[in-house]
Amino acid sequence: MTTGGARAFAPGHVTVFFAPHWSDDPARTGSIGGGLTISEGVTVGVTAAETTRIRINGRDGAMDAVGYVLEELGVPAAVRIDTELPIGAGFGVSGAAALATALAGNHAAGGALSENELVRIAHCAEVRAGTGLGDVVAQARGGIPLRIEPGAPGFGALDGIPAASRLEYQSFGELPTAEILSGDTRVIREAGSRALERVRASPTLETLFAAGRAFARETGLLDPEIEAVVREVRDGGGEATMAMLGRTVVGLGTGLTDAGYEPSVARTHTGGASLVIE
Amino acid sequence: MTTGGARAFAPGHVTVFFAPHWSDDPARTGSIGGGLTISEGVTVGVTAAETTRIRINGRDGAMDAVGYVLEELGVPAAVRIDTELPIGAGFGVSGAAALATALAGNHAAGGALSENELVRIAHCAEVRAGTGLGDVVAQARGGIPLRIEPGAPGFGALDGIPAASRLEYQSFGELPTAEILSGDTRVIREAGSRALERVRASPTLETLFAAGRAFARETGLLDPEIEAVVREVRDGGGEATMAMLGRTVVGLGTGLTDAGYEPSVARTHTGGASLVIE
Q1: DSSP state of A245
Q2: In the beta sheet, which residues pair with residue A160?
Q3: pLDDT tens for residues B43-59?
Q4: B176 vs A225, which has greater pLDDT?
Q5: Alpha-carbon distance A226 to A240, whole Å?
Q6: Would the CB atoms of B277 and A165 count as touching at under 8 Å?
Q7: Nearest residue of B to residue A155 by CA position?
Q8: Of chain B residues 202-241, which have a CB less than 8 A from chain A?
Q9: Cβ A159–B272 below 8 Å, yes or no?
Q10: CA A138 – CA A11 distance, rounded (Å)
């Protein structure tokens, strides 16, 4: 076992709609749904150390899912997490950090595990932390993922929308993921399942966004401010919807710019999470 | 149905070892094995046309798997296939061309199918053409794929080696894929299954290359010229093995250069095949 350092990148992931699925086994827990991985993401550097210490964008911090990954790997480490994405705003930053930590931590420790095993570890860590149900498997895949069966590799199954696009996003604040997921999710499950059926029947970006808007309305997760921004973009002929779960609007092409906003600009991400070649 | 044009890219794929699996159903036919996707690949432009016409690197040509994909999509088209990779030398060019044609052809026709459906169509076209058994699913995934169950999405299953590296390759000519695959493949099946077990137990690049060399020896596919090049690289402390099926040596880092060759240089490819944003 070497004890060097390694870095990995995982793309951000905006969930557009979802239906949670619970099990006693965290590897079988997860969600079905649809989303977009984005070219901005999370870079994690892992260096073996006596005790685990986590720095986020240059400051000491904590991220439960990252700590659980290192526990599972048995690798105490100094972890540097860097991201330009807003945290808690629906970009799956904790899932990306957990997944990149798994990839970099495994490599730093000599590389005993396969990608599926590392995705499972990161997925289970996210489930245990209560910070996400489907981001990790989506971020491992990349592209525009459809989660057609919930859970980690070996249980879950993915498909994708064969498209690519410039993206824009603007965040207006956080939503409490853990609180929403621990409430009554029957309406979310039903709306999410309907949305997935609709997109599988017509796997295009246009259908994904239309299904996302219907999901946001039907679940009551769409607040008036976000709804107004989405409507402005739509009125200008653009595509936009709400990120689940965050007070964030994501749009295709130049929709947000055309509506007078000054959004962050990114693209759909082609690949999944990966080690960074030093 | 729109009738515009679209472009897609699929990475090259070097199979390091494999075990073929046959079925009456082409979607269940395929191979288990291990390989590397590489940053060089195939770009395909598809424009709807009255009759199908295929140009390869600027010249009229034919590629059965590409023709079968367009038939299955019901999209006669003008197809431009461009690649810097040598054809018939073990880089999965026909698989990449079939997969990129499926992605671009679907998009040009309005986008009715999902990624899994397009991968299935390209995989079945390759099987029907007799030009490959596992390249398409590997190229759809990217990274360093392990094909742990054979066949198209829905039947096959993939894992991956969590690594990334500079690659070098040098080709010394073609091997007749169809001829080898239509012969007695018992020895290949047994050696390929052993190699996969070995790599799954230790999913690193070093084990992949060691398993590949053992596979090449055990199957008798390693000819003396290729064997000598691999040995030179190994003697210099580098990693190299033979591409299956081609008279090509692929190495990590600067192994071939260090041994005095002037190889092509590439990297492991992070993502799978995807549309190109115009």
Answers
A1: T
A2: A145
A3: 999 999 999 999 999 99
A4: A225
A5: 10
A6: yes
A7: B157
A8: 202-204
A9: no
A10: 9
